[in-house]
Design brief:
Low-confidence stretches: 1-38
Number of domains: 2
Largest sheet: 8 strands, antiparallel
CATH topology of the largest domain: 2-enoyl-CoA Hydratase, Chain A, domain 1
Number of strands: 22
CATH class of the largest domain: Alpha Beta
CATH superfamily of the largest domain: 2-enoyl-CoA Hydratase, Chain A, domain 1
Number of helices: 11
Length: 437
């Protein structure tokens, strides 16, 4: 029920093919898991809400309502109730493990079944599928399925067994063969103008050249890091990328946080520790309903740090949220970057029309504006869990971006996003042109 509400709010018909995807993770970031005893789901959920929710709510008429319905009725869109099975799958996913083919897609009228992205180190990524590829049909067991709709693809995918190879053919005539499998996620892509690296292996910590993902129009000495989420081994991967940047002697970095909806605060703290100017410094402040304030610090023990002399640019869009926005706060607060080096996507009328959405719905020209934090409480008796909004977040410089996010009103630049799923990197190319003009 909650996921359906959120999908309607986003109004983007996209799906992520992962057996572990039990919640819409694009905009949400659970932070801390605490044990909380309870007799049954109803009493347990109400007790935590009354004690921990970041604002007071009147639940006096909640008698007879199921636990998940209580969350839907009284709490914000970031709070979530999980059954024991859902929470186990979510924990597995947040640790960096996933299963499936790692493909996200959308059906765009007039174009077809379009790849939005492929998860690093997933079967679809390793096979070579990338954003913008249009899938015409799939073949398995001698049967061909034309992808004329989202439903066609869903039926085809659902029929596949783990380990069963399937052939996918694109509009450009290329074919790719891969199967569902379990894999560790590579959250970081590092690129220069002549090479690129992702992370492979059972723990996704083996830095692997991916030359086809090089960004040829980057200026000499400029590095690009795409960071997809703040989970699993993302911080370790980021540190290895920083080491490579230092080895190459890069003088500028483009940090791409587009479509990065955040994740774990501890991962954000760790990544913030890889910047020379913020290492060991306060990364954010969390303020609760009771007036108590908690400081969270950037890690101070990272061997690989990006020099303060490196010019840092940030790419963001309406899906840049939560821990991503907190990391931007670190970068701005300590002068690692400034608003003039932040480039926010402004979607074209063509894209808005094709997706059937308004500029306001997709937060065109701004970041998402999620400046609140969730804590996750687990019932040790039943295994169920409740993700609950517990604190409002403030940057080290005291700024809160909750609601409006970041936009040109803060001094950020807007960059045209003519067709985000075009596959040719047009938006990134335009942003690079603005940065280095």
């Amino acid at each position: 029920m909650r996921n359906e509400k959120l999908k309607k709010r986003l109004k983007i018909a996209a799906a992520v093919l992962s057996a572990a995807a039990v919640a819409v993770l694009v905009f949400f970031a659970g932070y801390l898991t605490r044990a909380a005893a309870g007799v049954n789901a109803y009493d347990w959920v109400l007790e935590i809400i009354r004690d921990r929710y970041y604002v007071e709510v009147d639940t006096s008429d909640a008698d007879g309502i199921a636990a998940d319905a209580i969350v839907d009725k009284y709490l914000d869109g970031y709070s979530e109730y999980y059954t024991a099975e859902e929470y186990e799958a979510l924990t597995h996913s947040n640790a960096g493990s996933s299963s499936g083919i790692g493909l996200s897609y959308s059906y765009i009228p007039g174009t077809g079944l379009t790849v939005i992205g492929t998860t690093g180190n997933s079967p679809s990524f390793r096979a070579g599928l990338r954003s913008g590829d249009v899938l015409l049909y799939g073949e398995s067991g001698g049967e061909r399925t034309e992808f004329g709709s989202l439903a066609d693809f869903s039926r085809f995918y659902s029929s596949l067994k783990t380990g069963e190879d399937a052939l996918y053919v694109t509009a450009s005539g290329e074919s790719f063969t891969f199967a569902k499998e379990n894999y560790s996620v590579s959250y970081v892509l590092l690129a220069t103008n002549d090479n690129a690296w992702t992370f492979s292996g059972t723990d996704a910590l083996q830095m692997t050249a991916s030359r086809n993902d090089a960004v040829g129009y980057l200026p000499e000495g400029c590095a690009y890091i795409g960071l997809s989420q703040f989970y699993g081994n993302a911080a370790e991967q980021f540190g290895l990328a920083v080491r490579k940047i230092n080895e190459l002697g890069c003088t500028s970095l483009i940090l791409d946080l587009r479509n990065d909806g955040g994740g774990s605060v501890s991962v954000m703290q760790s990544i913030a520790g890889h910047f020379e100017r913020s290492a060991g410094m306060p990364a954010m402040e969390a303020r609760g309903r009771d007036g108590a304030s908690y400081l969270y610090y950037a890690d101070s023990d990272k061997e690989e740090r990006l020099s303060g002399d490196v010019e840092v640019y940030v790419l963001a869009n309406g899906n840049t949220a939560s821990a991503s926005e907190a990391l931007v706060g670190v970068l701005v607060s300590y002068g690692i970057t400034d608003y003039g080096n932040i480039y926010v996507s402004e979607y074209s009328g063509e894209y808005l029309s094709a997706m059937g959405v308004s500029a306001e719905a997709v937060k065109s020209g701004r970041t998402y504006g999620k400046g609140i934090m969730q804590s996750t409480y687990k019932n040790p008796v039943t295994g169920e869990a409740l993700k609950l909004t517990t604190h409002q977040i403030y940057w080290p410089n005291g700024k809160s971006i909750h609601g409006p996010g970041l936009s040109a009103a803060d001094g950020c630049n807007t960059v045209a996003a003519p067709a985000p799923f075009s596959g040719d990197g047009e938006e990134l190319r335009l942003a690079v042109g603005q940065m280095f003009s």
